[in-house]
């Protein structure tokens, strides 16, 4: 991987003021910022860059009195005066019944399948940055996006923002609840004020990325359905069974139909794609003299509990995104321990870079990522580094 001169953490947990959190004052327990990471990214009408930061807010002492506790939004989706009606509560499970090896979650007894609860609740914080995305202009606590109903009672995760047309922004988020693990959609005409549009994918899907523009009058998106069961490819196949990046189309950006053909799949000759998923919403650009949709995605190499997350790239045909024009074999971005070294006392994961946004700035790309599930990383990548 090439070292880039403009590559640093721009938002860390220290930046977040929890006195202005949506959770503030709801229960008598201290919280802290487990991570401020995986930011959706777009360009605002004034030319500044918006980072929609995932703030994972966790209990300072989740274990007490022989039980482990988690935060949950308790509300039925009603609104009063434009505000969601409900409150944040703490749930408790007997410690001897749960598995707490993964710092991000704990497993609870299920009926023959995996059941988990989270060690934090995530909400989304809009942070306005300078046009190069390197410095903070304003933090818009008044425009934070928090759970509104039982479909996201365990929080909202990993926003992806697509400026589909002038004055039309669409943002997908992963909403977590016992009801479903779904993709929810928000719309905006200015990138700062967002309207909830409802659920668009009702199955477990972590990475829905809407293309930044229409293709032959249709909205396109990359998706990544999950599950615990995969059917084997035949012996000798170049493909590995497991999560893959799929395609879907829509006439309106709200109702989606999966595409029949497979898209970007894990390969047997690469442990780096043993698990994979979408990163940044695809943008129409030119790379090495070829015009197409640039897709940045994450590939995971198995290691310990979480694995090593890296960012890879693929260039898709402008008029037929099912066609791959080019693909990089080497990772574009890798986790960088030097970036998080000043935050060593806050680290709970390592070996993770999770790209969530890209902007074309002529001679370079501005890439937004989450580093170590802890902080927001901005990297300026010259275009000649791809291709």
TrEMBL record:
<keyword id="KW-0378">Hydrolase</keyword>
<dbReference type="InterPro" id="IPR007184">
    <property type="entry name" value="Mannoside_phosphorylase"/>
</dbReference>
<comment type="similarity">
    <text>Belongs to the glycosyl hydrolase 130 family.</text>
</comment>
<dbReference type="Pfam" id="PF04041">
    <property type="entry name" value="Glyco_hydro_130"/>
</dbReference>
<keyword id="KW-0326">Glycosidase</keyword>
<keyword id="KW-0328">Glycosyltransferase</keyword>
<dbReference type="GO" id="GO:0016798">
    <property type="term" value="F:hydrolase activity, acting on glycosyl bonds"/>
</dbReference>
<protein>
    <submittedName>
        <fullName>Glycosidase</fullName>
    </submittedName>
</protein>
<keyword id="KW-0808">Transferase</keyword>
<feature type="compositionally biased region" description="Basic residues">
    <location>
        <begin position="256"/>
        <end position="265"/>
    </location>
</feature>
<feature type="region of interest" description="Disordered">
    <location>
        <begin position="256"/>
        <end position="278"/>
    </location>
</feature>
<dbReference type="InterPro" id="IPR023296">
    <property type="entry name" value="Glyco_hydro_beta-prop_sf"/>
</dbReference>
């Amino acid at each position: 991987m090439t070292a880039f001169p403009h590559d640093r953490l721009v938002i860390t947990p220290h930046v977040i003021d929890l006195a202005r959190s949506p959770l503030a004052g709801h229960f008598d327990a201290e919280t802290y910022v487990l991570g401020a990471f995986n930011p959706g990214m777009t360009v605002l009408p004034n030319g500044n860059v918006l980072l929609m930061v995932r703030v994972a807010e966790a209990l300072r002492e989740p274990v007490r009195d022989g039980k482990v506790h988690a935060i949950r939004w308790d509300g039925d989706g009603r609104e009063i005066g434009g505000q969601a009606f409900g409150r944040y509560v703490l749930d408790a499970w007997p410690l001897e019944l749960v598995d707490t090896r993964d710092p991000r979650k704990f497993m609870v007894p299920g009926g023959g399948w995996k059941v988990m609860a989270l060690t934090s609740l995530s909400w989304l914080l809009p942070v306005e940055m300078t046009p190069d995305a390197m410095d903070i202009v304003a933090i818009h606590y008044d425009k934070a996006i928090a759970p509104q109903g039982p479909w996201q009672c365990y929080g909202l995760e990993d926003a992806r923002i697509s400026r589909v047309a002038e004055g039309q922004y669409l943002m997908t988020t992963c909403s977590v609840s016992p009801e479903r693990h779904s993709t929810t959609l928000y719309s905006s005409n200015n990138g700062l004020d967002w309207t909830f549009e409802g659920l668009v994918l009702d199955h477990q899907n972590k990475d829905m990325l809407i293309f930044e523009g229409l293709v032959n009058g249709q909205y396109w998106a990359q998706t990544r359905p999950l599950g615990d069961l995969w059917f084997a490819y035949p012996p000798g196949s170049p493909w590995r069974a497991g999560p893959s990046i799929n395609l879907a189309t829509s006439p309106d950006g709200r109702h989606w139909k999966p595409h029949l053909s497979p898209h970007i799949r894990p390969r047997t000759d690469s442990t780096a794609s043993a698990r994979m998923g979408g990163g940044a919403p695809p943008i129409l650009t030119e790379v090495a003299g070829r015009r197409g949709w640039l897709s940045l995605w994450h590939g995971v190499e198995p290691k310990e509990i979480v694995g090593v997350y890296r960012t890879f790239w693929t260039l898709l045909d402008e008029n037929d995104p099912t066609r791959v024009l080019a693909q990089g074999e080497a990772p574009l971005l890798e986790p960088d321990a030097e970036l998080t070294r000043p935050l060593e006392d806050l680290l709970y994961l390592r070996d993770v870079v999770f790209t969530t946004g890209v902007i074309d700035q002529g001679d370079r790309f501005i890439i937004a990522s989450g580093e170590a599930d802890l902080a927001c990383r901005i990297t300026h990548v010259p275009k000649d580094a791809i291709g």
